[in-house]
Design goal:
The chain is of the alpha/beta class. The chain has helices at about 50-60, 75-80, 120, 140-155, 175-180, 230-235, 245-250, 260-270, 300-315, 335-350, 360-375, 385-395, 410-420, 430-435, 450-465, 465-480, 485-509, and strands spanning about 5, 35, 65-70, 80-90, 100-105, 110-115, 130, 135, 165-170, 190, 200, 220-225, 225-230, 240, 275, 325-330, 355-360, 380-385, 400, 420-425, 440-445. The protein has a nine-stranded mixed beta sheet with strand order 4-5-6-3-2-9-10-14-15, sandwiched between helices.
């Protein structure tokens, strides 16, 4: 049983509630108010790193600010909030329908606004589409979200209004544009989690989202003849961030800028583009993680091997004392899955094994099934995702393959290090910022089979040198990737965005 199909799985699986210390008892009425707008949040629904960030960063910020989240009212959101009730109604505008605004809290007290519009948000599939592709009205669905964020800055909730909007990706990027068009003066921070996704729609859709005709220009929402939600945000936001220092530099180049490099170079020159590395929450601790077959800590390599044995058993693989390589990833071109496939035969030939969990492009899913069929004892593949299996793979594997062509931040390489699995990564984006070559993992430059194979050879050599291998594992497991540092960086950024007048007002309060 080298290949296991997990059957019909939700593309966006809810993960366990993030682990954070309780928020301090603070009089939030004296704190600046931050609205964190997002299309997904790990408490309820996630498709990738943005969902993880939205579940973690607002909580890390709560000791410094009065933070609330705004999210579409998917069925999982409304069902998952406590004391949820409707607090306001937002009227229709242009082609965007009316909806209600509800408010509730998570079990740990984080306030969450949800847009109640069943026709827009209560659908099968991911937040963005279904098996047939993206939803055809995504411009309407996320224009509604952006406009709601702007209205919350303008006093839609009579008891709480946002002093600053923190927006995430194209789905919320119209908010600063709506504020500009409506004359609402509030600072805003827009975080780019992946520049490749820009929210592009036909020019004719301009009117139905309530954008003025004059906005369709180069200094506005126009992008090569199309309407771009992301460009609207990049143009109008007070400050732009992205999720690692290296990626912040990469997106200002023609190679990495996805056609927006000119605008992003301008923002960088103005001091309005910053890279702030994401973190991971406290649940990623091999000593206490309840998902693991056997908890362990640094130097308890017997415990790590026990998890490896469980992984081999679950995937129907042979018992082995050779290195176990892992892929825990979306199976897409960006992640370099083709490079990993090209390297797989040599991994097996050298005495290694490969375990894969993920889903994505059909061509890669099929190629991995074929690989497992040719090497049933040494390659295990699950198409789909299960949190417990993913965590056990991080804990049991010796090396994580992550040869991404680009990677804004990446979380898997941080998870792997915390669990003593040494990442093998291309030097790009957040991978470059979080993996130290020869110290906590192995890096290479060229997105080519040759580049990846050179790093894999070094991994095999290190596996044969147990003293060096264990020293690298100890160092990797000691790395701190928590959210406190990121939260402090955002605090500094918010303070700059508020300006001196706001700072004096809260100090006086």
């Amino acid at each position: 049983m080298a290949y296991v199909d997990l059957g019909e799985l939700p593309a966006a699986e809810v993960t366990p509630f993030p682990s954070f210390a309780p928020a301090p008892q603070t009089d939030h009425s004296l704190l600046p108010r931050i609205l964190f707008a997002t299309p997904e949040m790990a408490d309820f629904v996630k498709t990738g790193g943005l969902g993880e960030v939205a579940g973690a960063l607002p909580r890390a910020l709560r000791r410094h600010y009065d933070v609330r989240v705004l999210i579409p009212g998917y069925a999982s959101v409304i069902a998952g909030l406590q004391n949820f009730s409707t607090i306001a109604r937002m009227g229709a505008f242009a082609g965007v329908p009316a909806c209600e605004l509800g408010y509730g809290t998570t079990p740990d007290g984080l306030g969450v606004y949800a847009l109640v519009a069943p026709d827009l948000y209560e659908r099968d599939g991911t937040p963005y589409g279904d098996a047939e592709g993206d939803f055809g009205d995504n411009d309407i669905r996320f224009a509604r979200l952006g406009r709601a964020a702007a209205e919350l800055a303008a006093g839609l909730d009579p008891f709480w209004s946002a002093d600053l909007l923190h927006l995430n990706d194209w789905q919320t990027a119209l908010a600063p544009a709506y504020m500009a068009w409506l004359g609402i003066r509030r600072p805003s921070v827009l975080t780019i989690h992946n520049l490749a996704y820009q929210g592009l729609f036909p020019r004719d859709n301009l009117g139905r989202i309530g954008a003025p005709d004059y906005a369709f220009q180069m200094d506005g929402v126009e992008f090569y003849g199309q309407l771009s939600f992301l460009k609207a945000g990049l143009y109008h936001a007070s400050h732009v961030t992205t999720v690692s220092d290296t990626y912040a530099r990469e997106i200002t180049t023609a190679e990495g800028g996805c056609g927006l490099d000119g605008l992003l170079r301008t923002r960088a020159a103005q001091g309005r583009l910053t890279g702030i590395l994401n973190g991971i929450d406290e649940s990623w601790d091999p000593r206490t993680d309840p998902h693991l077959a056997t908890p362990f800590e640094a130097d308890d390599w017997k415990g790590k091997r026990a998890n490896a044995d469980e992984v081999r058993k679950a995937f129907g693989m042979a018992v082995s004392r050779g290195p176990l390589f892992a892929i825990v990833s979306r199976l897409v071109h960006q992640k370099g899955i083709d490079l990993s496939l090209a390297a797989a035969e040599s991994i097996v030939a050298e005495g290694g094994q490969l375990v894969v969990i993920g889903q994505g492009e059909g061509r890669f899913e099929e190629a991995l099934r074929d690989l497992a069929g040719r090497h049933p004892d040494n390659v295990g593949v699950h198409v789909g995702f299960r949190e417990t299996e993913a965590r056990r793979i991080f804990a049991g594997s010796d090396f994580l393959l992550m040869p991404s062509r680009f990677e804004p931040c990446g979380l898997a390489q941080m998870y792997a290090q915390r669990f003593g699995s040494l990442p093998i990564v291309r030097r790009t984006g957040g991978l470059n910022d979080t993996v130290e070559d020869g110290v906590t993992g192995f890096t290479f430059a060229d997105a080519s089979p040759r580049g990846l194979n050179s790093a894999i050879r070094r991994a095999f050599e290190t596996f044969g040198q147990k003293k060096r291998l264990n020293a690298m594992r100890r160092t990797a497991m000691s790395r701190e990737f928590g959210w406190d540092r990121a939260a402090l960086n955002y605090c500094g950024l918010y303070s700059r965005a508020f300006g001196n007048n706001a700072a004096r007002r809260w100090k006086a309060a």
